[in-house]
Design brief:
The chain is α+β, with helices and mostly antiparallel strands. 24% of the residues lie in helices and 30% in strands. It is built from 5 helices and 7 strands; from the N terminus they run E-E-H-H-E-E-E-H-E-H-E-H.
């Protein structure tokens, strides 16, 4: 499927435009213990709606090699003890790439995306010597993704049409049958309506 790919960057931490804090308690924690099982869960839970399939065929050792690559970091957003989203940062020679970023579907629409990106960008800039933080997205991603990146102060530096994710021409991926449906109300909103 042909899609438009956008490359975005920040070249100074002063470019960060923080999002407002969400109304719920969110903790961003670095996953310092490499766990192929956990990262594969995050990858499928966050990426299945957006046709992330590149790593689905990886075996355990390929995941472990990726997670222990020098400069690799996994940051996980936790809400009430539940993983709500994550980002993978890859540091190389002053550049930090946000390799994967997103929310678990049941947490989309709860005001977490901008806050998570704000905190991930802060972590990316924390290491002395960082000169650029960048990522890429495309038109197969969430309709809010590009807006969120730009609202946090990232600027587009390259645009290209690209054949993206051949699996996007087929059936949508699901981590399990029926997973990609509307999220139920959060426990907090259910309690408020009682």
């Amino acid at each position: 499927m042909l899609a438009t790919r956008y490359y975005l960057q920040q070249t100074s931490p002063d470019q960060l435009k923080p999002a407002k804090k969400p109304d719920i308690d969110v903790q961003l924690v670095r996953s310092a213990e490499p766990s192929p099982e956990f990262n594969r869960y995050l990858y499928t839970a966050v990426g299945s709606d957006w046709y992330w399939a590149f790593r689905l065929g990886w075996d355990w050792q390929q995941w472990m090699d990726w997670l222990t690559e020098p400069g690799h970091e996994t940051w996980v957003a936790w809400v009430r003890g539940t993983p709500a989203g994550y980002a993978e940062l890859v540091r190389r020679d002053g550049d930090v790439e946000i390799e994967n970023f997103g929310l678990v579907p049941s947490f989309i629409g709860r005001g977490l995306g901008g806050h998570l990106l704000t905190e991930v960008l802060r972590r990316a800039w924390e290491v002395p010597g960082t000169t650029r933080v960048w990522l890429h997205t495309n038109t197969l991603d969430s309709t809010q993704a590009l807006h969120n990146y730009q609202a946090r102060g990232m600027t587009v530096f390259q645009v290209e049409d690209n054949v993206e994710k051949p699996q996007a021409d087929g059936a949508k991926l699901e981590p399990w049958p029926g997973a990609n449906r509307a999220a139920p109300p959060s426990p907090v909103s259910r309690a408020a309506s009682d």
